[in-house]
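Our consortium's second objective concerns turning raw sequence data into structural hypotheses that experimental partners can test. To show how far this objective has progressed, the report includes one record in full. It was chosen at random from the queue rather than selected for favorable results. The single chain below, 343 residues long, was entered without modification.
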Amino acid sequence: MRWDNLTEGPKGPTALFGADAVVTRTFDTPEFRGITFHEVRARSIVNRVPGASRMPFEWTVNPYRGCSHACVYCFARKTHSYLDLDTGIGFDSQIVVKTNAPELLRRELGSRRWTGAHIAMGTNVDCYQRAEGRYRLMPGIIEALRDHANPFSILTKGTLILRDLPLLQEAAEVTEVGISVSVGFTDTALWRTVEPGTPSPAGRLNAVRTLTDAGIECGVLMAPVIPFLGDSPEQLRETVGAVAESGATSVTPLVLHLRPGAREWFMSWLGAHHPHLVPRYERMYAGGSYAPTWYQRQITRQVHELAAEFGIGPARRGAARPVLVPERPTGPAPAGATQLTLL
């Protein structure tokens, strides 16, 4: 493994962490079997979103790199190549843990240079993935944000967020808190193959209900809508109906996009599980990482019409911020310490 891209650069100490600070661990327990954790002490934790992004926030915090959710379509897979780690199985099983994230965030929030801008979490890899159950970085992160009354949002597929519900309630009393849960479909057969390390869609929607019942506004990012596998009118109706029953404050669809790193892994999975769809995907994504604009607009219209029918609306201004969706990206995904954009 090569850590050079994250160590000292030619212009000085701009790296995320030093190679001599890496401790590698494995745990022989069922939930962590086959997973290797690389514990590091980060040099910075607040990352700037690329200027070309249309995302409505400028700063993110990512306590982990790699994700045991193992979603076959995850756009963040490319980030593992910066470490010379595999973007397939390696992304799912080689997890970088920034063990000093809470203390580092508290220090950065207390800096005179920090202006109290909104901080988004979960827009790269999930901060409530399985590793969080052991490392417990998020409580300290939320406490730091609460103590500085700093607005923040969280996007997650992890029901572990409910562990931190009391902290979220405390933070919501002093600052703006936006929560979004990602549920792209309710088809359990599809879930088991494309999101094998995540809680079930039903479990995630139950978490939405618990959050909203506790007074924490929670929207649903309906992502990804997977062409030819999760986009039939019946599937869209079932998913939006389940979202409505969960008490979600908003629903925002996002069609599958396949960036380099994710594209190769997803197409390999598609060839193994649905080989008849490979030519259709090659045609649909021939123009790049994103489905054609007409298709994106069609899905968005269908979901919004269903949402109106079921009494919920698209993400509104001031709700969980990471789910505001442009149709197209405006620039390439950068490397290094810069946050990749969700969209």
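The partners drew two points from this record. Confidence is low (pLDDT under 50) at residues 7-14, 316-343. The chain is about 30% helix and 15% strand. Both points have been shared with the crystallography group to help prioritize constructs.
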